[in-house]
Amino acid sequence: MKKPVFVDTAYFVALTNRSDRHHRQAASLAGEWHGQLRSFVTTDAVMLEYANFFARSPLRGLAATTVARLRGASGWRIVAMDRPLVLRGEGRYAAHADKAWSLTDCISMEVMTEAKLDEVATTDAHFTQAGFRVLMGGE
């Protein structure tokens, strides 16, 4: 069985918004994974960032439905933002002042490192800088 894929905000945004330049790529990955019975990991921080992205959008309802559906979906693990995780993320954030990594990215990177995950569904090159394999972009 393959390792789970970490799913970042960029993937969710691209999949939700048909006019996003990475929508076709995100939809293609979703179709590919459906047949593979892959499992997925994300975080409450990513869910917050995703919902916030669509806060003033006609797609707000779809984003809210997606978050609620993922919380109950089999094959999905959404890691809670407890104090120790946030502190580890803040430590990574402070230690890499030379990078433009967001705190959400740093929390995600901490989760990926702890779970020994190397693939991330995102277009965010910050994950490449941190040594992870980015599955989107570059088309």
Description of the molecule:
The radius of gyration is 14 Å and the shape is globular. Helix content is 55%, strand content 12%. The protein has a 5-stranded parallel β-sheet with strand order 3-2-1-4-5, with helices on both faces. The mean pLDDT is 95. Helix 1 packs across helix 2, helix 1 runs parallel beside helix 3 and helix 5 packs across helix 6. By secondary structure, the protein is α/β, with parallel strands linked by helices. The chain has 7 helices and 5 strands; from the N terminus they run E-H-H-E-H-H-E-H-H-E-H-E.
Summarize this structure as a short list of keywords or feature phrases.
single chain; alpha/beta; Rossmann fold; 5-stranded parallel beta sheet; 5 strands; 55% helix; globular
Give the topology:
Layout (H helix, E strand, L loop, with lengths): L4 E3 L1 H8 L6 H14 L3 E4 H10 L6 H13 L3 E4 L3 H13 L7 H13 L3 E3 L3 H5 L3 E2 L5
Helix pairs in contact: 1-2, 1-3, 5-6
Shape category: globular
CATH architectural group of the domain at 5-79 and 117-134: 3-Layer(aba) Sandwich
| Biggest β-sheet: strands ordered side by side in the sheet | 3-2-1-4-5
* CATH class identity of the domain at 5-79 and 117-134: Alpha Beta
- Run of helices and strands: EHHEHHEHHEHE
The whole-angstrom Rg is 14 Å
Assign the CATH superfamily of the domain at 5-79 and 117-134.
5'-nuclease
Number of strands: 5
Work out the helicity level.
40-55%
Largest beta-sheet characterization: 5 strands, parallel
On the 0 to 100 scale, the average pLDDT is 95
Q: Decide which structural class fits the backbone.
A: alpha/beta
Number of helical regions: 7
Low-pLDDT segments, ≥5 res: none
Terminal-residue CA separation: 28 Å
Strand content: 5-15%
CATH fold-level assignment of the domain at 5-79 and 117-134: Rossmann fold
